[in-house]
Amino acid sequence: MSLVITGGGVVTMDAARRILSPGAVAVDGRDIVAVGTPEEIGRRFSAAETIDAAGSLVVPGLVNTHTHAPMVMYRGLADDLALMDWLQKYIFPAEAKTVSPEMVRIGTRLAALEMIQSGTTTFADMYYFEDEIARATKAAGLRAVLGQTIIGFPVADAKTPAEALRRTEAFIEAFAGDDLITPAPAPHSLYTVDEQTLRAVRDLSARHRTPILIHLAETEDEVGIIRDRHTMSPASWLEKVGLVGPNVVAAHGVWVTDDDIAILKRTGTAVSHNPESNMKLASGTAPVPRYLAAGVTVGLGTDGAASNNDLDMFEAMRQAAFLHKHASGDPQAVPAAAALEMATIVGARALGLDRVIGSIEVGKRADLIVVAMDGARQTPMYNPVSHLVYVARGDDVRTTVVNGKVLMRDRRMRTLDERVVLADARALAAKVREAVAATR
Length: 440
Ligand SMILES: [Zn+2]
Hints:
The protein has helices spanning about 40-45, 85-100, 100-115, 130-140, 160-175, 195-210, 220-230, 235-240, 260-265, 275-280, 290-295, 315-330, 335-345, 345-350, 385-390, 420-440, and strands at about 5, 10, 20, 25-30, 30-35, 50, 55-60, 60-65, 120-125, 145-150, 180-185, 210-215, 250, 270-275, 300, 370, 395-400, 405-410, 410-415. The chain is α/β, with parallel strands linked by helices. The protein is globular and about 65 Å long. Zinc ion binds near residues 66, 215, 251 and 304.
């Protein structure tokens, strides 16, 4: 046995939503091989490494269904703007000047450090030079669905959509069958990618059986653009070009009608809800209670750190729960249990990974985190699920395990050199600052 975590409450998120308090988890290699009481596990197994989780909760690693990892490099670069202004006046120009393989490597390592420290074990990414992101992600030990961006104007890693498609296919072939990385195409959105390219993405995905990541109906402006061009809603256009299905993750889905929700439900298309980004950019309120009532698979995301401004999934859970209570006037909208599901087992389902991760169950990969619950802020604890959503913060994560490998133990990093990662990011930030100043 390689690893035993024992003595803490185990929030399994299995079908019965069992909570063992105290419980224990035994891991062999990359897999969970037993879940039980500390006595049972102690009797049956002796492990190379044992982690005492007393005073903590053991929870499935959190699943961030939408981010742009290297954009941590633009954290706080342009705040307090609406999406279209923010993108077109600040982010796209900054990216044109600064996105490079080096930027993406340094940014991904910084994002990985933050994710490991705040309990995210799997993330879905949409960015450029996704092969570099994949290598940095693997080196950090994280699991990810990585979407190579395809967009309708020249960008750092492709002059044309056709070039982006070729790059995407090469990326998919290079990482096919990887244990940690699921490669995918990521057409940026319906308003930045033309019909021919969207259909080519559908064919590419069908050929290689990949997920597809896309932004959908994020703002009211987008709805107007798609209506003007195609005389239908974004969700209808998405269906028309064939980019719907259980392998598709539509980020945001803020501006949708009941008919749009029916399309997403009927086709099994998943939605990634990003409450903090939607609030910060004033994009609107996604109708999450209506999605949940309709049975749409809704995962949670942080979006990129330029619009959040962090990658803390605990905050995303809490904000999701608060936003929908506030918006609906119903305190039962998105209860704690639903928020925790969106960040674990349902998020895993959104990414097509729920048979592998998302819960602490025998046979699944050991992707789990140990969250401290013995400080002043967490005391007393009557209900672990309530505390995970309404009290815990990313900083409370003590230990992070992915694929059976301990990436951080007691806040000590094992796969990343924290000082080097931070120093590299600060050095690169000086270049970003210069490049952006030159465009103003
Ligand atoms: Zn996004």
